[in-house]
């Protein structure tokens, strides 16, 4: 994390330096998928994070590369790690997976944990980048009118994964790996737990009715990542 803030200071002092670079590495939420076949590059959490950073460090230039791929899992994303992350030699990598992975159930937990740990290790070994891991938001708990007909075939599976606590099992694995690898964690899932505990129907924050947070959810994630970064300064 020290390199990140050193680079922020260097760019502020010398405008000829390259921009401070961030890679957001994740699934459809990171890609910015909202409703069915709708991409929103303005309200996705890492774009909002860049806005926060630009406001807080107004003399530094930031550049964020969106490496989110819809439907992706941690194990599959390892195959594009060189292309999308390492080749860019970023100053900060945000890792956000778990929603698709959790649909593999109990049998996928071990591979998920091992792949996430390997991903973090490789980034740390081959770059000087800071790494921050996010936990995912909630998925749907009940059927709703926002679910697109094309997604009805997977809707029950998604709700079962949320309601049986399987997604929470994967979130626990993310927390454990982040602790083992000594990287900061922006625990988005915990914030959604607090929302649910306060009586909010969290399904209303899912813009596709299943697993994509609406702009409120992205703002929450961006705010949490920003303050997590500053607290590890």
Kindly describe this structure.
Helix 7 packs parallel to helix 9. With 233 residues, the chain is of the alpha/beta class. The model has no long low-confidence stretch (mean pLDDT 97). The chain has one domain (2-231): 3-Layer(aba) Sandwich (Rossmann fold). It is globular, with a radius of gyration of 17 Å. It has eleven helices and five strands; from the N terminus they run αβααβααβααβααβαα. It has helices at residues 2-13, 28-31, 45-56, 74-77, 81-84, 99-102, 109-126, 152-163, 166-180, 188-197, 215-231; strands at residues 20-26, 62-68, 92-96, 130-134, 185-186. 48% of the residues lie in helices and 11% in strands. Strands 2-1-3-4-5 form a five-stranded parallel beta sheet, with helices on both faces.
Calculate the terminal CA-CA distance, rounded to whole Å. 7 Å
Radius of gyration: 17 Å
Strand fraction equals 5-15%
Note the overall shape: globular
How many structural domains in the coordinates? 1
Order of helices and strands: HEHHEHHEHHEHHEHH
Figure out the total of helices: 11
Low-confidence stretches: none
Q: Count the strands?
A: 5
CATH fold assignment: Rossmann fold
Q: What would CATH call the homologous superfamily?
A: SGNH hydrolase
Q: Helices and strands: which structural class?
A: alpha/beta
**CATH C-level class:** Alpha Beta
In helices, the fraction of residues equals: 40-55%
- Going by CATH, the architecture would be 3-Layer(aba) Sandwich
Strand order, sheet with most strands = 2-1-3-4-5
Largest sheet: 5 strands, parallel
Average predicted confidence as pLDDT: 97
């Amino acid at each position: 994390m020290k390199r990140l803030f050193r680079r922020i200071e260097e760019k502020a002092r010398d405008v000829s330096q390259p921009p401070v670079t961030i890679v957001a590495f994740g699934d459809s939420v990171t890609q910015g998928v909202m409703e069915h076949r709708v991409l929103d590059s303005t309200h996705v959490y890492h774009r909002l994070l860049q806005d926060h950073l630009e406001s807080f460090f107004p003399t530094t230039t930031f550049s964020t590369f969106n490496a989110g791929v819809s439907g992706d899992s941690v194990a599959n994303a390892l195959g594009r790690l060189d292309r999308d992350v390492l080749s860019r030699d970023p100053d900060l990598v945000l890792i956000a997976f778990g929603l698709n992975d959790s649909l593999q159930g109990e049998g996928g937990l071990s591979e998920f944990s091992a792949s996430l740990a390997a991903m973090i290790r490789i980034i740390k070994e081959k770059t000087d980048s800071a790494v921050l891991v996010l936990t995912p938001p909630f998925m749907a708990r009940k059927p709703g009118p926002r679910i697109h007909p094309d997604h009805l075939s997977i809707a029950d599976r998604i709700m079962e994964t949320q309601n049986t606590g399987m997604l929470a099992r994967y979130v626990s694995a993310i927390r454990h790996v982040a602790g083992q690898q000594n990287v900061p964690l922006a625990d988005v899932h915990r914030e959604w737990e607090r929302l649910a505990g306060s009586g909010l129907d969290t399904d209303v924050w899912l813009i596709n009715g299943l697993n994509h947070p609406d702009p409120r959810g992205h703002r929450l994630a961006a705010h949490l990542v920003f303050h997590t970064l500053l607290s590890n300064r």
